[in-house]
Amino acid sequence: MKLLKISAISLAMALSITACGGSSSKSSANDAQETSKTEQVTTDKVQPKDNKAEKTVCENKVIVDAYKQGKSDTQVKGCAVVIKVLPDDTKGHKHQKMIVKLTDVSPKRTVLIAHNIDLAPRVKDLKKGDKISFYGEYEYNDRGGVVHWTHHDPAGRHQGGWIEKNGKRYQ
After folding, report:
1. Is the pLDDT of residue 42 over 70?
2. What is the mean pLDDT of residues 50-63?
3. In 7-121, alpha helices (H)
4. Local structure of 79: helix, strand or coil
5. The whole model's pTM is what?
6. Beta strands in 28-70 (DSSP E)
7. Taking a C-beta distance cutoff of 8 angstroms, is the pair 7, 37 a contact?
8. Which pLDDT does position 2 carry in this prediction?
9. What are phi and psi of 55, to 5 degrees?
10. What b/e readout covers 51-90, taking b as 16+ CB neighbours within 10 angstroms?
């Protein structure tokens, strides 16, 4: 079974163990190896063949923190309510666009999601008020930020993402 990259958090933890010196280089290597074992995700879990969504653990605080720090290139997993469906972006690769309000954060935050519909199926019947969850890459801007890469990468160079709605995963 193919394994995906460890999460950015696990990688940062492994690097900080090494950078901080740990108790010994052997201990640091073992800690990093143990971290990678616990954080690896099988392809079947990230991209189920039947496109049925699994229970998503929302990490909206990561998005809020990235916004506050002006940070980009951050893999995020979030839950939100659609507040506006925008017209598709048809310049270059086609994107289905929506503005969403993150759930369970204070103050309330909105982000734009740009879902590449040349590489992933369109989220069907998307409308204001729909609850969604998503996994993609956050890019900072002063209006709340953008989440993109909510699709698979056919070249296999970037972590694949998705959007889930009503128990269906679009990737």
Report:
1. no
2. 75
3. 8-19, 25-39, 43-46, 60-69
4. strand
5. 0.68
6. none
7. no
8. 36
9. -60, 125
10. eebeebebbbebbbebbeeeeeebbbbbbbebeebeeeee
Residue at token pair 């143990």: 34
Amino acid identity of 79?
A: C
The enclosing H or E element of 115 equals strand 110-116
User: What residues contact residue 117 under an 8 Å CB cut-off, 6+ apart?
Assistant: 88, 94, 95, 96
Q: Residue with structure tokens 């993609």? A: 136
What's the length of the chain?
Answer: 171
Round to whole Å and give the CA distance between 32 and 30: 5
What number of other Cβ atoms are within 10 A of residue 28's Cβ?
A: 19
Is the CB of residue 76 less than 8 Å from the CB of residue 31? Answer: no
| Domains, the chain, ordered by start | 8-45 (no CATH), 60-170 (2.40.50.140)
